[in-house]
Write a structure and sequence with these properties.
alpha+beta, Cytochrome p450, binds protoporphyrin IX containing FE
């Protein structure tokens, strides 16, 4: 039973009493697809819609999600819109691979993300967390949205390449951010594209970015290869270079290594930065929870973390992160297309129709959650990995294509947040609510200044 004494209800766009008319729905989807939903979506398990001739369905029920993302996952591929936007960033890495090629890549990569290997990466997360608090040192307020973006990029670049060089990291971060906020933003053409290369005239800037981005990642990978022929660095690049296909014995070619590295940077950086931002924001709204977390961290300070098992000393911190991803799932919507006609929850779904699974909606669904809009971390008490239960909780997706980096992300986020909370009490002076806005991830409507009150002397 949840303790329901005046829980915090964090900001979210209003839910409409009725479905939006087509033009408002289209414009709303482009502006902020968290603000388009009606009561209907939060009450029912399956919704069908046709917008200017494009048919879509929203699957909003755990059984339906299990069917399309696990049992019959082979029948569902990413729609043309996804590679149009992401190919320039991730190339032919695992995120966009399909069918047999996806199976091969996933088989090769999975061993690099086992808990044993994430253990090897912990020193990188600790170094990135220390860099973050080093940057915050002496400041009484900070834009933590920006600080977490820098810190999460730092963590992923250190974990991939043992890259401590700040200038180089900034260059990579700048490239990624300029893409995500510029040519990589979804456009109206993406929604109506029949293939990856339709409306080619709209793809010029994305292709130009791809050239610059790939040559930057290639340069890092080849510098590391040259510098480290005989030295083990204990990072993901070491693991990727050492990978051998258990079925064929083949290793990854140079461009494959590059595309997988680019994929991990893209998939692992902004998502984790958003998680850290929203968790910190929620803790400013719930100071009592923040105080309890600080006590938990004081009892086992981050400098004592040596293995993943040590993170078990922070169960409350983990629950806060899980609850943050329920309320503000970094990836708010997943989209697929069936390659053959299918039936989901007794409803026919034709080939080529866009099928949406929206963690944003499912995580706030009134049938599946008690007090769905409230921040109540204790709802996850005793559940170490609730995203694997096949229920209504999908921050990392579901089925065979579930996020390969979930353990990586949670370990990193636990270490970062513990390191910040150990030193600072976080608050926000402004009463202006920070609203969630859907882009590739859920970003804040504005970047609030967090007040940092020192809790530990340097
Ligand atoms: C809080 C942080 C993260 C969240 C919320 C998150 C979420 C997700 C989700 C929802 C998917 C499934 C997308 C779909 O089915 O369409 C996914 C896939 C993926 N994620 Fe993550 N992710 C996070 C961090 C990471 C990290 C740190 C890495 C790697 C270092 C990573 C690598 C990937 C990859 C490679 C895939 C594609 C897997 C495949 O298609 O087989 N993610 N992630």
């Amino acid at each position: 039973m949840l303790d329901t004494l005046s829980p915090v209800i964090p900001p979210a766009p209003a839910v409409h009493a009725k479905d939006l008319p087509p033009v408002k729905l289209l414009l709303g989807s482009i502006r902020n697809n968290l603000a388009i939903w009606s009561d209907n979506a939060f009450d029912t398990g399956f919704n069908r819609n046709t917008l200017f001739g494009v048919e879509s369905v929203l699957v909003n029920d755990p059984a339906g999600v299990r069917h399309m993302m696990a049992t019959n996952a082979a029948n569902y591929v990413r729609p043309a819109m996804t590679p149009r936007i992401l190919r320039p960033m991730v190339g032919h890495g695992v995120f966009l691979a399909e069918g047999g090629e996806w199976r091969r890549q996933r088989r090769l990569l999975s061993p690099s993300f086992t808990p044993n290997h994430v253990n090897i990466l912990l020193p990188h997360f600790i170094a990135a967390a220390n860099d973050l608090v080093g940057e915050l040192e002496g400041q009484s307020s900070a834009d933590l949205s920006d600080a977490y973006q820098i810190a999460a990029l730092n963590a992923v670049l250190r974990a991939l390449f043992s890259m401590p060089d700040r200038a180089e990291r900034d260059r990579i971060g700048d490239l990624v951010r300029r893409y995500v906020t510029g040519p990589g933003r979804p456009q109206i053409f993406d929604a109506f594209a029949k293939s990856e290369n339709s409306f080619a005239f709209a793809l010029g800037k994305r292709r130009a970015f791809q050239k610059r981005w790939f040559s930057a990642v290639d340069a890092i990978v080849s510098a590391r290869r040259d510098a480290t022929r005989d030295t083990a660095h204990h990072d993901l690049l070491d693991l990727l270079i050492a990978v051998r296909d258990p079925e064929t014995g083949a290793s990854l070619a140079a461009d494959e290594v590059r595309d997988q590295c680019a994929t991990m940077i893209f998939a692992g950086y902004e998502t984790t930065a958003r998680l850290l931002f929203w968790a910190s924001y929620l803790l400013t709204l719930d100071q009592a929870e923040q105080t309890r977390l600080r006590a938990e961290v004081a009892a086992f300070p981050p400098e004592r973390v040596a293995t993943l098992d040590d993170l078990g000393h922070w169960p409350r911190l983990r629950r806060v992160l899980l609850e943050t991803m329920r309320l503000y799932p970094p990836v708010p919507v997943l989209v697929r297309e069936p390659i053959e006609d299918d039936v989901i929850m007794g409803e026919p779904v034709r080939r080529g129709v866009q099928v949406y699974v929206a963690p944003w909606v499912l995580h706030r669904h009134r049938k599946h959650w008690q007090h769905p809009t409230a921040f109540m971390p204790d709802r996850f008490a005793g559940q170490a990995s609730p995203w694997t239960s096949g229920g209504a909780y999908l921050p990392f997706g579901a089925g065979p294509r579930i996020c390969i980096g979930a353990g990586f992300a949670l370990a990193e986020a636990q270490i970062m947040l513990a390191t910040v909370l150990q030193r600072y009490t976080l608050a926000i002076g402004s009463q202006r609510p920070v609203m969630p806005v859907a882009r590739l991830t859920i970003q804040p409507s504005y970047a609030p200044m967090f007040k940092l009150e020192r809790t530990l002397s340097p």
